[in-house]
């Protein structure tokens, strides 16, 4: 096992209005390392009073120095922040792996990549332009401005803690908003270290506030607080629905990035030596704990047996182990309830008659017995009526579904309440161009899978959510348009007629 030195501090603190604070109640909760199964950090357990203090701080900061700062100056602070994150990337990655058990290689890649978001959106800050409208009223000058919304409540999950927060914070801050961010109760540690860099970069006090606590205790207050203008949420669809309903009471703007049951489709004409690792990376990378997991492999019947055989052989070689070890390929599940949920779904799949091809249980290796592992698992001959084909497992469980032709592949892929992503493996260029139009998904990868970038929009169709993160248009999710009318003609208004 790789060394896991204790944190320098016994108890961590939250960031509220530029102050490092304990919860008003003085309570803490334990954060667990999913590989050792042991608590390794004490995190403040925020209550409603802490939410109120954070929103108040963000609200004051929105009306203060941050608001009067030029967009270029805002962008420069974000660029400084990006440099600091780049310097700290390795430390942040280790914190993330210890807190959520995801592979160090993946967390390193994410933490090194995060600065690009702050550079890109920081650079965009002073390129948001209004318009001059050629208005149809003589002597009137009409122009538009794009203005920030106010306080943004960012609520994020445990699977990619800093990356998914970055997708919200970078555009929200570039647009001139202030933020109250609550990371998941299962992965709050890296957020509190990330928070130190906001201070160092020179963000005015209260522009970024980080509170830690349980969703069921403080989530509702974050969403319904009268001074919160917008809620940006990533998480499960059941919670997303609750957040949307709660936000409706205050008519707040909402973006939701929810679950998926993404189809990764292999046609007989695919380059199988690329498609097989593509299928594996779609589901077993991140131990299946990713919203874009390609959890349904749709395989054309003429190559079905061949693909299944190769897939099982390939996945069998995956090294399960300590996520801090760069050679490990499959890490533990982040939380104990999530492991139970994954094992329950494996049981359901068996009961429904799916053919178990691989895995299906907790690994027997004693060296990793303390960790919250589930073996990479595959089910064959899955049919659309099975729950394993319809519901998000969020674990290393692949459902393999045969299809005859293009029409059937599209019908199966689209037969889902979700529509986050889809993958497509084919050497037929026409099909590679034709099919993305037919697939009901916000992201389609052809001959690749699971790529994201600060430059390209990310978000769901159907019940995978709405609003887009990443890419230039994401900043408009955090802006509102104002129309300004000026009578430049010195005319005297007719009092009782609309102009
Ligand atoms: O997520 P939640 P959980 C799926 C996955 C998983 C299921 C539940 O299938 O099994 O969701 O996981 C906060 N008001 N995904 O319980 O509840 C919570 O504190 C406001 C998919 O961990 O969605 C956390 O910060 N906020 C997914 C955030 O919501 C509330 C990623 C997400 O937690 C709240 C994670 C409330 N009432 C899980 N209750 C993806 N698609 O990426 C909780 N929260």
Automatic annotation (TrEMBL):
Gene3D superfamilies, sorted: Aldehyde Dehydrogenase, Chain A, domain 1, Aldehyde Dehydrogenase, Chain A, domain 2
Q: What class of enzyme is it?
A: oxidoreductase
Q: Which GO molecular function annotations are given, in alphabetical order? A: betaine-aldehyde dehydrogenase (NAD+) activity
Concerning InterPro entries, the annotation shows:
Ald_DH/histidinol_DH (IPR016161), Ald_DH_C (IPR016163), Ald_DH_CS_CYS (IPR016160), Ald_DH_CS_GLU (IPR029510), Ald_DH_N (IPR016162), Aldehyde_DH_dom (IPR015590)
Q: Which UniProt keywords apply?
A: Oxidation, Oxidoreductase, Potassium
Annotated ranges, domain Aldehyde dehydrogenase: 20-484
Which residues does the Swiss-Prot or TrEMBL record annotate as the active site? 257
Per the record's keyword annotation, is Glycosyltransferase included, yes or no?
no
Q: What is its EC number?
A: 1.2.1.8
**Pfam families recorded:** Aldedh (PF00171)
Instruction: Give the family per the record.
Output: Belongs to the aldehyde dehydrogenase family.
Q: List the protein's name.
A: Betaine aldehyde dehydrogenase, NAD-dependent
Q: Which gene encodes it?
A: betB
